[in-house]
Amino acid sequence: MPLFGNTFSPKKTPPRKSASLSNLHNLDRSTREVELGLDYGTPTMNLAGQSLKFENGQWIAGISGGVDRREAQRLRRRNQQLEEENNLLRLKVDILLDMLSETTAESHLMEKELDELKSVSRRRK
User: Can you tell me which residues the record assigns to a coiled coil (predicted)?
Assistant: First the structure.
């Protein structure tokens, strides 16, 4: 027995048993969801007193609190009308700008022709 020798020798760990004693890992997904309660339903949240829920990849406003469905539908229709009106007005502005640029170009051409005619008439005198 050494005086300052290596007296610490840990015991070897026994081999592990199976990873899980439960057979739930062998079940299919739907059975597991029923057994473990993994069906949470649709996610919902409350922002500024308005309830929102996540359905089909979009957040949808609920009836509680904020605007009811009829009001939301009316607002959507009004928004659509305003967007169409805005698009029409943008088109009109574009047409007016095209007309203005065409008139300006014609005006510059007429001024140039007038200047040329004036210079020709001065040479004759």
Answer: 72-120
From residue 115, how far is each of 74, 102, 107, 122 by CA, in Å? 61, 20, 12, 11
Listed residue (63, 36, 33) closest to 50, CA to CA: 63
Report the SS3 class of residue 37. Answer: coil
Continuous segment of H or E residues that includes residue 104: helix 69-124
pLDDT one-digit tens code per residue, 66-112: 567 788 889 999 999 999 999 999 999 999 999 999 999 999 999 99
Number of H helices, E strands in the chain: 2, 3
CB 45, CB 55: distance < 8 Å: no
Q: Which two tokens stand for residue 25?
A: 């890992």
